[in-house]
Amino acid sequence: MKKVIAEVMGPDPPCYRCTAVKENVEAVAPNLKAEGIEVEIKRLYIISKEVIGKYGLLVSPALAVNGVVKTMGRIPDKKEIETLLREAAK
Amino acid sequence: MNKTIYSLRAGILLAFVFAIIGALIYTRIMAYSLAPTMTPAHFQGLSLWQIPIAYIIDYLSHGWLCLLFAFVAAGLVYEFIPKEVITKYMSSSKVTGYALGAGIAPFFTVCSCTMVPLFTGILFTGAGIGPAITFLLMAPAANILTVLLTGEILSWELAGVRIVASLTTAIIAGLIISKTRWGKSVEKEHQLTNPNPQSTIKIIKPPLDERLWGALKFGGYLAKRVLPYFFLGLVVVSYVEAYLAEEVVATYLTGIGGILLASVIGGPLYTPTLVEIVLGRGLMDLGMSKAAMLSWLMGQPYDIPNMVATSRIVRWKVVLTYALIAWACSVTFGLSYGVLIGSL
Which of A1, B121, B319, B338 lies in the 20 to 30 Å Cα band around B40? Predict the structure, then answer.
């Protein structure tokens, strides 16, 4: 079982757009699990010192896979997220 | 096969975007007004429930293209502006910080969910409190939606003056606050000793058709969020136009007193839904002076939801300082604009 960490970063209270990103990640997770890739989803606060210390200034919503920011400021669709996660698992 | 579908989708979306831009340019050439044309006299003889309906129909028959264009443009700009630029250069130097703070504001603030994160991000990553405040004050006054609608509904002259005035205000406020003791202490408290960006950011660009589609969807989302309030605003405006006596507006919203009053009520009234622009149009039809209108529009930076969100991060002293500076500038610019155009 391979493990991939997906971090969804947005403001708190969550805005519509970051919730949409998180939902898309959640939707593809079961498919990937069937292939032997476990996705750990984290929801992080975009203006916490933890996030800014690690990634710097981001445009919300941002999605990082295995510690690398892949998208920001837009909602990637399910297909795109699935590709991203699958590549990260390789 | 996939390639054909891709170019087809991209082609259709591009055609749609250019059709809207073309239509807008056409109305410009033909000097066709996109602003509402009803005046207070038109409302006489209409019953209570007919007033808002008549006004909204009048508004939509002219303004739909302008609204459509505004939302499409907002979506496109937000999608296609290179977001890596700010994250890369923000903390490089003070001057770049101020320039970027003011420069990016128009493009990133159509959605309130980006505003507070960017504000704190600027603060944390080392550009400091000055550029952060500049960004915050520039944001509501100069975003794409506001500028387009101010231009179309009020006047392009006012829209231009408003941008210049807001830019000056935002930079002055940023500079002053970065010099104050409480501003410095907030900056020190929040600055990260060792921000380590870039190495961990590898942005992926999706194909053009998906980006265009994403941009239009975002425009649609903005429309869904803003339009209900916008129409509610139109209903209120129709009653204001129908029932508010011109003498009242002439007495209270012209001259120096008008500027002072407009600058005070403009702020709390501000909602991120562009109602203030429509309401402003109504009041101008009733005789509000252009100078007072400028103060009214500039009252925005110290709107209440904005203040609440930022006060959690920078504490009330900083918020109070920028609110005062913004108010003082709104009065100053209102007065000088009035003197300049020769009618207070």
Answer: B338
Do B117 and A67 make contact, defined as CB atoms within 8 angstroms? Answer: no
Q: Any idea of the CA torsion for B11, B13, B17, B23, to the nearest 10 degrees?
A: 80
Closest-CA residue of chain A to B225 = A16
* Residue B48 forms part of a structural domain: no
Q: Do the Cβ atoms of B214 and A11 come within 8 Å?
A: no
Q: What does the pLDDT look like over B44-63, one tens digit per residue?
A: 777 778 888 888 888 887 77
Query: Could you count the other beta carbons within 10 Å of the beta carbon of residue B251?
Result: 13
Instruction: With CB atoms and an 8 Å threshold, state whether B124 touches A47.
Output: yes
Q: Tell me whether residue B18 is in a domain.
A: no
Give the count of Cβ contacts less than 8 A between chain A and B.
Answer: 103
Range of the structural domain that residue B183 is part of = 82-191+227-341
**Structural domain tally of chain A?**
1
Domain-located, residue B86: yes
Please say if the pLDDT value at position B296 is more than 70: yes
Tally of domains within chain B = 1
State the nearest Cα–Cα gap between A50 and chain B, in angstroms.
10
Q: Is the pTM of this model over 0.90?
A: no
Domain of residue A82, residue span: 2-89
